[in-house]
Specification:
Elements (H helix, E strand, L loop, with lengths): L1 E4 H22 L5 H12 L5 H20 L4 H24 L6 H25 L5 H12 L4 H24 L7 H24 E4 L3 H10 L7
Parallel strand pairs: 1-2
Helix pairs in contact: 1-4, 1-5, 2-3, 2-7, 3-4, 3-6, 5-8, 6-7, 7-8
Length: 228
């Protein structure tokens, strides 16, 4: 197998996923399942940008993970920083999206491109074995800890986010915001596509650290599985 830098995989994933989220918002078919709740909350609390609300929601999710595991790791603290940077990147891409045309056919392309990119980016995050953004850390660590597939944890998490977004949107905004047919589609199929990319990357590449910092971050992110 060819070798691939874990550090590079992590950097690509950061840019890929933040771009994907902005493309999905631009498509108007519904944002990603993860972003549905932050988007609704950013409309309810309109003084907070979408990117920063995304960071805040993921931070709460990471706190839930630490409570379930009863463990606070240095990797999780690092995840807070990554989540903040990611939120800034999302806000930056959102500013650029205004320059893209709004033709219906292009919106379809925006949606499916965003869906593929966000699934691929999630797989790269996991393969990098770096301290991840809060949501990706939740998916990876819960899957490893309970010895279940990433697909299962990702799909359940997506469904919970979408349900919460729908309830809050109807309750406080009086209409569905950000949640559309595309969101429902992603709730059921993003987990499967992410698992597909994980399997594909595992067959083609041997992911290794090329720097001392990368090795230390990998060591920081290691997790013990739940004892039988």
């Amino acid at each position: 197998m060819k070798r691939f830098s874990k550090e590079l995989a992590f950097i690509i994933a950061m840019f890929t996923n933040s771009l994907a989220i902005s493309l999905l918002v631009k498509s108007v078919f519904g944002v990603s399942t993860l972003s549905s709740l932050p988007l609704v909350l950013s409309d309810i609390f309109d003084s907070i940008s979408f990117g920063m609300m995304n960071f805040m929601v993921q931070t709460v999710l990471l706190m839930i993970l630490m409570a379930i595991k009863r463990q606070i790791k240095a990797a999780y603290i690092f995840s807070f920083v990554i989540g903040f940077i990611f939120g800034l990147m999302v806000d930056g891409y959102d500013l650029l999206m205004v320059y893209l045309p709004d033709l219906f056919l292009l919106k379809i392309i925006y949606f499916f491109t965003g869906w593929v990119l966000i699934s691929f980016g999630a797989a790269l995050f996991i393969k990098s074995m770096m301290p991840l953004m809060p949501f990706d850390a939740f998916v990876k660590d819960m899957a490893l800890y309970f010895r279940v597939k990433v697909k299962l944890v990702k799909t359940i998490s997506d469904l919970v986010f979408v349900s919460s977004a729908v309830i809050l949107s109807l309750t406080f905004l009086g209409a569905l915001v950000g949640v559309g047919i595309g969101t429902i589609f992603m709730a059921f199929f993003t987990g499967s596509l992410t698992q597909y990319f994980l399997d594909l990357l595992s067959k083609k590449y041997d992911f290794i650290c090329l720097s001392t910092i990368g090795e230390k971050l990998n060591a920081m992110a290691k997790i013990k599985t739940k004892q039988a």
